Amino acid sequence: MAPPLVSVPMKKNKNKKPSLVLTLSAAGFLIGAGSIAYWLLSQRQLSSSDLLVGANIIPGDALFAVSLTTDPQQWQQLRQFGTRETQAELDKNLVELRDRFLTNNGYDFQKDIAPWVGNDVTIAFLAPDTATKPAPKPVTTNEDAANDQQSMVMVLPVKNPEIAKSILAQPKALKQGKWIDRTYQGIAIKQNQGQAGENFSAALLDGRFLVITDNPKATERAIDAYKNKTSLATTGGFAENFPKIANYQPFAQFYINVPTAAKIAAASPNRPLPAQVLAQLQNNQGLAGTMSLESEGIRFKGVSWLNPNSQRVLAVENKAGEMQSRLPAETLMMLSGGNLQRLWGDYVLTSQGNPLSPIAPEQLRGGIKSLTNLDLDKDLLSWMKGEFSLSVIPTTSKQGSPDDFRAGLVFMVQGSNRQSAEASIKQLDDVMKNQYQFQVQPAKVADQPVVNWVSPYGTLTATHGWLDGDVAFLVVGAPITDKIVPKPNNTLASTIPFQQTVPTEPNPTNGQFFVDVERIVKNFPLPTLIPNQQTLLDATRSIGMTSAVSDSRSNIYDIFIGLKKVTNSTTLPSPGSNKGNSVR
Prior knowledge:
Elements: H1 18-32, E1 62-69, H2 72-79, H3 84-101, H4 109-113, E2 120-126, H5 142-147, E3 151-157, H6 161-169, E4 178-184, E5 187-193, E6 201-205, E7 209-213, H7 216-228, H8 238-241, E8 252-257, H9 258-267, H10 275-281, E9 284-294, E10 297-306, E11 333-337, H11 340-351, H12 361-372, H13 376-380, E12 388-394, E13 407-414, H14 418-434, E14 439-445, E15 448-454, E16 460-467, E17 471-477, H15 496-501, E18 511-516, H16 517-523, H17 533-538, E19 540-551, E20 554-563
Antiparallel strand pairs: 1-2, 1-8, 2-3, 3-7, 4-5, 5-6, 6-7, 8-9, 9-10, 10-20, 11-12, 11-18, 12-13, 13-17, 14-15, 15-16, 16-17, 18-19, 19-20
Helix pairs in contact: 1-3
């Protein structure tokens, strides 16, 4: 199967900027499957730089860049993951892109593109000028309008310059408009002259990169970035952080310019960001990732980094990785972190006053104060400086009886001061007893002391106690305390699903995540958060993540998504047919 995104689009259809819409739809689909990511350049010309393909050409203020492999075997491997439904959804996007960029323009990938294109191609989106303008212009010209729209830049590495030159010199005939030649900074540009605002341009830089844009000004910006060394490769922190997540022959890669994205969000009339939130986001510079296909699923490696000029720094503290050894093998989900107090502080720093935050810090503080009369920061988080976890553990139910399924929510945290912790927990017991009329009953589980909260209706609601002297736990929901007290012999860490899903790197770590998607979906009704959510969940077995603070200005992540496979995978329909048996 030929990659659907690689082409020399020498004409444009009637709809406004179809290339952006279609390319974004493909990127969106990959992100929905888990996220699109980036890989580090292995082209011969730039093998020593370890950067995104075309990073030395893409303007440094680009909003978003995504690179995809041109290896047909990898695209075929991607189509083997999931279910018939996810395969059909992927095929729909691939066929649309292939036909739009290649077939409809008279090109065939194997014949016209494959002989000269490199191993990967990059598509970047440049932010409109309005994202950085302090105020709109009083008079807008056609040229201004074009500059205020988002532009696309495609960078296609060239492995056979002679063939690429011939393609560029003799492009396919246009159905409308004509080709014109012009020069900018000594670079020859081939540009189609058609309807206003629908001009594609193509230029060959040093015989190594074919650059295609949907805006003449974008072509000039790319040439300027290349010649003046103001490209993405020189953006603060970019060259330093991409090598941290290099991978051999990845499927995809991406980069997001966080400050630019924040400015665009702030200018949105629908959900504008407050000034203080915009200022906070300026501390962050970039987010990047790499996506690789493995035999049982997809692996993502990611890195995020702060603006080099930011006064904020990260605490290099990676002290997690023990909680999975305190949980039983049947655990459905686990989220762990290295320092709950520090995590909360970071969340407050980036979320206070942000309308897009899932929970406003001030509301959570106020809610806890109102319900328990406890101060979240002083009474609770002050002693929660160690590793913590939040888990879902099912009860033992009869085989084949889903109606009997119950689960408990388990919170564990390693305390830094047990005396302060016990004083706060005693206050909490008093509130449950006096304000909510719960019975607070001391009890024992496996000869270890615990405290049960029994509701006024006589139902056991929660249990709390201590593990190994310094780990406090709270169980809410189903009575599953006997699964963690004493420490289980068969732990979550020892199970095959956990070991095959949760990455072992980075190590040491400041947090991990594991979810058995198959069992979660089978037993829990989940709210719909994204389009085609059920289709994606049906294709997924499990998800695991391991993260760490790399240095004082960056975090790294490793994510693995275990996927089902389509048996007897079909081939992509050939151009011009609804059903075909050849992959292009």
